[in-house]
């Protein structure tokens, strides 16, 4: 049975003025201005949507979450501000909130159609890119209540404001306040400049902005499950690394699987085996950059693993893991002083060449690339609005500028086969079946190819 969602008119939620909430002293002035860091500027101004599915009812979820959202904004005032150029004006203009209701359906029915409901369960920005300005909120939230008692919280935000880790911190705070508690992690007041944290090369910022010249790619929304049995085989195929290095991670194994399966699926439309097919991975560098606890702005660098389509399609998956691990070893050098000054040293030669080369790339070349992000170990799966943690957390894109996917946190109820869930928009409709066939072939293989 189709799921019918009815939305109320949007309302504006501003920071709570409750007397027990004292805003940070440095943001008492509503006109305070926050300068975007180089990490923020490196992110394209596109909307990101996080969907949290709760299967345990709470009393009046819409009112509870709306109230706690207002209280959380009192701690995170820049989120209620407006983007003006390369700054956030802490105007307390608020965020957009929509209350919605849906007809009765089982949890399994709803889970099955989530990929087909990008605009039903979330509020979207009117354009593929966030333009900022006095009329555009930095965050949008929708709470959809189902007749059976469970509910969905959708959080959409401008990527210039925060990365997924930073937004997870904010959503966890909303949950803490919804349960009647206080904010356990005090946010670091966003009044830094580029001196506060190491920067990223100006070439990386320019390359990211180059994506803004293109329209969103017409890609299919697809949920992918990578079984634990395949992940274990890939880990074994990757073998041991140098002494002191940790073994292959779940994310590295999943990224290698998706990379090879996708390249093989789309090769018929590529320029040939020598066409570039790079893998891009956003790497959280909070520890490397010395970001303090409570920092919720962007703090990732875009790691590029260069390769040709032929290299990826013909490599063992274990070899692809080693390529990913080798590239990740260069991340500290991307934050070195030479990188900050825009030089090519610090172990960033290959990565810099690949990123800068994209500036002049055509949209057809962008389709050969793949971006894989991870929302595992960020904590958003621990969000509790009063009835327990969500049964599922997922990325819910309406459109994307580049082929991309997100490795999602584990489902609370788990999966019988231990599969890892991936939300994706990385193949065109005509390549969906080919991708599924490649993944099925790799799953069924006895391991001789890895």
UniProtKB/TrEMBL annotation:
Q: Which GO terms describe its molecular function?
A: acyltransferase activity, transferring groups other than amino-acyl groups
Chain segments carrying region Disordered: 334-353
Q: Which InterPro entries match?
A: CAT-like_dom_sf, Plant_acyltransferase
Domain of life, per UniProt, equals: Eukaryota
Pfam families named among the record's database cross-references: Transferase
Query: Which family would the database say this protein is a member of?
Result: Belongs to the plant acyltransferase family.
Protein name per its UniProtKB record: Uncharacterized protein
Q: Which organism is it from?
A: Digitaria exilis
């Amino acid at each position: 049975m189709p799921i019918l969602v009815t939305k109320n008119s949007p309302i504006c939620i501003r920071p709570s003025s409750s007397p027990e909430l004292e805003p940070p002293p440095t943001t008492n002035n509503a006109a305070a201005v926050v300068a975007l860091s180089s990490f923020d500027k490196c992110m394209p101004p596109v909307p990101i949507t996080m969907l949290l599915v709760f299967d345990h009812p709470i009393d009046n979820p819409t009112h509870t979450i709306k109230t706690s959202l207002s209280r959380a904004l009192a701690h995170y005032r820049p989120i209620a501000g407006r983007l003006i150029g390369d700054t956030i004006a802490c105007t307390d203009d608020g965020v957009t909130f929509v209350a919605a209701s849906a007809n009765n359906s089982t949890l399994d029915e709803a889970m099955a159609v989530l990929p087909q409901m990008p605009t039903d369960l979330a509020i979207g920005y009117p354009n593929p890119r966030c333009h900022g300005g006095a009329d555009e909120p930095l965050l949008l939230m929708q709470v959809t209540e189902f007749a059976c008692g469970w509910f969905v919280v959708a959080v959409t935000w401008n990527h210039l404001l925060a990365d997924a880790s930073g937004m997870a911190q904010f959503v966890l705070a909303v949950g803490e306040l919804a349960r009647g508690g206080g904010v356990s992690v005090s946010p670091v007041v966003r009044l830094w400049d580029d001196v506060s944290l190491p920067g990223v090369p100006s070439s990386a910022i320019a390359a990211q902005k180059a994506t803004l010249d293109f329209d969103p790619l017409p890609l299919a929304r697809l949920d992918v499950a990578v079984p634990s049995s395949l992940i274990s085989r890939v880990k074994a195929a990757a073998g041991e690394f140098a002494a002191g290095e940790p073994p292959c991670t779940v994310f590295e194994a999943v990224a290698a699987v998706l990379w090879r399966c996708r390249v093989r699926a789309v090769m018929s439309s590529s320029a040939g085996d020598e066409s570039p097919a790079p893998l891009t991975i956003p790497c959280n560098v909070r520890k490397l950059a010395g970001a303090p606890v409570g920092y919720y702005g962007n703090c990732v660098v875009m790691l590029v693993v260069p390769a040709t389509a032929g290299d990826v399609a013909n490599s063992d998956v274990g070899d692809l893991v080693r390529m990913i691990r080798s590239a990740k070893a260069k991340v500290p050098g991307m934050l070195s002083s030479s990188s900050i000054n825009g030089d090519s040293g610090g172990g960033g030669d290959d990565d810099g060449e690949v990123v800068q080369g994209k500036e002049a790339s055509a949209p057809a070349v962008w389709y050969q690339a793949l971006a894989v992000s991870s929302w595992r170990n960020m904590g958003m799966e621990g969000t509790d609005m009063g009835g327990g943690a969500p049964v599922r957390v997922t990325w819910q894109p309406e459109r994307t500028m580049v082929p991309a996917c997100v490795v999602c946190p584990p489902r609370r109820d788990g999966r019988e086969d231990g599969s890892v869930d991936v939300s994706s928009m990385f193949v065109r409709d005509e390549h969906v079946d080919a991708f599924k066939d490649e993944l099925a072939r790799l799953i069924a293989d006895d391991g001789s190819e890895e």
